[in-house]
Every structure is written in C-alpha cells, then in structure tokens.
C-alpha cells in the first residue's frame, strides 16, 4: 500500500535493496523496478528473470567486471539490460568513486559499448553515510556534497 501511495498509484519507479522485494512488488503489479545493489554474479539469473518479465527492471553497475557479466549474458530479443552507474560519494559500501579515473571510462563503456545489450540509464548515488547523523544540518551537508560530486562527474 505504501509503495502504491508513494508512486501515486502508477506502480512504477521504485527502488528495492533485495530481489525478494523486487519479486514481491512485481507480483503486486509493479513493472518498473530498480535493484539498487550492484548485481552480484550469483544473483544474475534472478535478475535476468525479472528483466525478462517486467517492462523495466533496472540494475546498478560499479565495475568493468559487472559490465562484462551483463554483456556476456544478454537478455532475449527485444530486451536489454538497463543499467545505472553506481557512484560511491562517501558511504564506502558500493560503487566507484566519482574521482576514480576508471569511473568515467566505465560510464563511457556503458554508454557507447553495446547499447542493444546494456543501456546506460544514468548515474546513481546513495547517501548511506547519513545513517549515523545526529542532526539535520549534517544530513543536508552530506546531501550537498553528494550532489556536487555527482554533478561534477556528469559534467566532466
């Protein structure tokens, strides 16, 4: 119910952190889901099944190996992997640092490589480093820093 309210009833445009959540929402009629964790190889088959069955199942990538994994495991005709580049702007859990020279190279490879197999949707950053914050000003500072880092990356 909460997800339907949050999406205005559209059943589109949600992010999940587990594939169990993705399957739950898919069973409830959601057909545009972002799996907000870089795809581990051992979850690829489950991700592929969701990508085949949903209108839009999107994933995160944060490495050349992840991109190669998707390229080597194409979806059936008429489908392609929809991937976001996951940037680590300070929470140090997942993603590639936007200042890492490989980040721009990876973004270019995703955008220009084989768009019929893997399409770069955009960049994604998560402010998980706000979880331990004790006040609003600190949360806002982290949000500003993350926004600045993403904007600097996408304009470089």
From TrEMBL:
PANTHER family for this protein: D-SERINE DEHYDRATASE, ZGC:162816-RELATED
Name of the featured protein: DSD1 dehydratase
GO molecular function: D-serine ammonia-lyase activity
Alphabetized InterPro entries for the sequence: Ala_racemase_N (IPR001608), D-amino_acid_metab_enzyme (IPR051466), PLP-binding_barrel (IPR029066)
Pfam families xref list: Ala_racemase_N
Domain Alanine racemase N-terminal: residue ranges: 6-130
UniProt source species: Pycnonotus jocosus (Red-whiskered bulbul)
Top-rank taxon, per record: Eukaryota
Example GO biological process: D-serine catabolic process
């Amino acid at each position: 119910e909460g997800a339907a309210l949050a999406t205005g009833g559209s059943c589109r445009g949600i992010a999940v952190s587990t594939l169990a959540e993705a399957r739950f929402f898919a069973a409830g009629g959601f057909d545009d889901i972002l799996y907000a964790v870089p795809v581990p190889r051992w979850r690829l088959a489950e991700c592929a099944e969701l990508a085949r069955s949903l209108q839009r199942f999107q994933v995160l990538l944060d490495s050349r190996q992840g991109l190669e994994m998707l390229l080597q495991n194409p979806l059936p005709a008429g489908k392609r992997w929809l991937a976001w580049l996951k940037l680590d702007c300070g929470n140090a859990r997942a993603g590639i640092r936007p200042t890492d020279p490989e980040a721009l190279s990876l973004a270019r490879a995703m955008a220009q490589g084989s768009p019929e197999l893997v399409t770069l949707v955009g960049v994604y950053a998560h402010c998980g480093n706000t979880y331990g914050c004790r006040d609003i000003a600190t949360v806002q500072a982290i949000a500003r820093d993350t926004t600045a880092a993403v904007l600097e990356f996408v304009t470089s």
